[in-house]
Amino acid sequence: MAVRKVLHYGEPSLREVSKEVHKVSKKISDLVRDLLDTMYAQNGVGLAAPQIGENVRVFVIDVATGNEPLNPMVFINPKIIKKSGAVKSNEGCLSFPEAYTDVKRYKNVMVKAINEHGKPFVMEAKDGTLLARAIQHEYDHLDGILFIDHCMNRFEAESVLKKYNLPPLDPELLVEEKELEEELSKND
Ligand code: ZN
Asked: Is the pLDDT of residue 148 over 70?
């Protein structure tokens, strides 16, 4: 399989809504291998198919750190079926080299998906863990939503983008998150 080129912010396919997978064909298995190879090559925690220019609903995550054995997780046609709580999360993205900013995320999520063998599964990630945040981050990529659309502070996000010569925020695309904002302001 192959390490593929990761598209950077500004490429149109990062803003597209990706298509459902109808069958876990050889083409999809190859895509999953490429996603994993590319994610590991870039030391990423997650990677979604649109980031390598394939607009299909597939992403991979591995939250293992240090000496922990690799633990690749594959999500095909994922759906977030439950979400609650709120957490502030400092995030980056392989499509935004070097840019990090604080974003709003749900603390707990439950996701339903199928794996690389075509088997359905349900996974719960709680307490704002890296896994809980990564699931939301990667899931968004399938709908053309990027982490900066959830930024806590527009000015900070703008300055980070500018610093790394990335295109500015699109205010039209910022996600309305009244509930999360209220919850987060309570925690402060
Ligand atoms: Zn990303």
From this structure: yes
Task: Residues 12-187: name the CATH superfamily.
Answer: Peptide deformylase (3.90.45.10)
Strand order in the sheet with 108-114: 46-48, 58-61, 73-84, 108-114, 120-125
pLDDT in tens, 56-77: 999 999 999 888 999 999 999 9
Candidates 46, 44, 76, 38; CA nearest to 137 is: 46
Q: Which helix (H) or strand (E) holds 134?
A: helix 130-141
SS3 144: coil
How far away, in angstroms, is 146 Cα from ligand 1 center? 7
Can 138 be counted among the known catalytic residues? yes
Position 104 scores a pLDDT of 96
Q: How far is CA 100 from CA 73, 81, 90, in A?
A: 24, 28, 7
Q: What is the chain's Cα-based Rg?
A: 16
Residue 89 pLDDT more than 80?
Answer: yes
Asked if residue 124 has pLDDT above 80, the reply is: yes
Q: Which of 54, 91, 116, 138 is catalytic?
A: 138
What is the CA(136)–ligand 1 centre distance, in A?
10
Q: How far is the CA of 96 from the centre of ligand 1 (A)?
A: 8
